[in-house]
Design goal:
Organism: Fluviicoccus keumensis
InterPro entries: NAD(P)-bd_dom_sf, SDR_fam
Helix content: 40-55%
Keywords: Oxidoreductase
CATH topology: Rossmann fold
Largest sheet: 7 strands, parallel
CATH superfamily: NAD(P)-binding Rossmann-like Domain
Radius of gyration: 19 Å
Number of strands: 7
GO molecular function, one term: oxidoreductase activity
CATH architecture: 3-Layer(aba) Sandwich
Family: Belongs to the short-chain dehydrogenases/reductases (SDR) family.
């Protein structure tokens, strides 16, 4: 069976391993409806993949969903599907890699809707490239920092005052398991930008929790999306569909934990500290020079 453009189909043998390698979600209509009915929820990166699946799920449970991405036409397709199913969706075509536009979006949303209950930071840019192929590609680092760090920072800054004044709100960030373990080869631009926002948001969460604003960071491993599709090695790893990832976000909204991680991640974190030298040696030895342009 051929894969859809925004997803791909992994080998069947990976499915039994997915329970252990990925965060666990929640599929409970009653609890989700109680949590989001009548609430205003912003989903960035909503034109496909995790964002699209989550937006449709939340709208079906009574949330007013604000769809954010760069492409108006693609957002309208998602919005039309939501409305056809009886849900409520509003489209905002914005390039969040431009902080000024992110700030303007927050201002516009507050003016048009009064407040925001939940912000799901899902938009992002992934890139896998050896440093030896990046000597003349400084723009790769600028772009990933813009969309994965600076844009989200500006967007969160735009909503914190309103959430603080209302003494309620939630910010959910789709991070990556890679920020919790020793950084791997070829992912420097991506991991640095994701780690920057992850650390920033966790630091901020300490300050805003007393004001009634909850922050949940989600650390998925592999999700079968258009963004991960170019990395062929990921096609043979156990992972999640976008619908399964949406259920992880559902759990974040209902239970409001500080973080949601794969079951194995804590063990890897302990090993990366207590066995730092062997782990580093192993990573260096298993890195294939074939990926490196000399």
């Amino acid at each position: 069976m051929s894969a859809a453009p925004d997803q791909y189909t992994p080998p069947a043998w990976t499915r039994p391993l997915a329970w252990f390698t990925n965060p666990h979600g929640l599929n409970d209509d009653r609890r989700l409806r109680e949590a989001v009915q009548g609430k205003t929820v912003m989903v960035t990166g909503a034109s496909f993949g995790i964002g699209e699946a989550t937006a449709k799920r939340l709208a079906s449970m009574g949330a007013k969903v604000l769809l954010v991405a760069r492409t108006q036409d693609k957002l309208e397709v998602v919005a039309q599907a939501i409305r056809a199913a009886g849900g409520e969706a509003v489209v905002y075509a914005v390039d969040l890699s431009k902080p000024h536009d992110a700030a303007a979006l927050a201002e516009r949303v507050l003016k048009e809707h009064g407040h925001l209950d939940i912000l799901l930071n899902n938009a992002g840019r992934s890139i896998r490239r050896s440093i030896h192929e990046s000597y003349d590609r400084f723009h790769d680092f600028e772009r990933t920092m813009a969309i994965n760090y600076l844009g989200p920072v500006q967007l969160v800054l735009g909503f914190i005052p309103s959430m603080r004044a209302r003494k309620q709100g939630q910010i959910i960030n789709i991070s990556t398991w890679g920020v919790k373990i020793p950084p791997g080869a070829n992912w420097a631009a991506y991991q640095a930008s994701k780690a920057a926002f992850d650390v920033w948001l966790r630091s901020v969460s300490t300050e805003i929790k007393p004001d009634g604003i909850d922050v949940t960071s989600i650390y998925p491993a592999v999700v079968y999306t258009r963004m991960s599709a170019p990395t062929k090695a990921l096609h043979h790893m156990p992972g999640m569909s976008v619908e399964e990832a949406a259920h992880v976000i559902e759990r974040a909204i209902v239970e409001r934990p500080d973080d949601i991680s794969p079951p194995w991640l804590w063990g890897m974190q302990v090993a990366s500290v207590t066995l730092s030298k062997p782990v580093r040696w192993l990573m260096q030895k298993t890195y294939r020079p074939a990926f490196t342009k000399r």
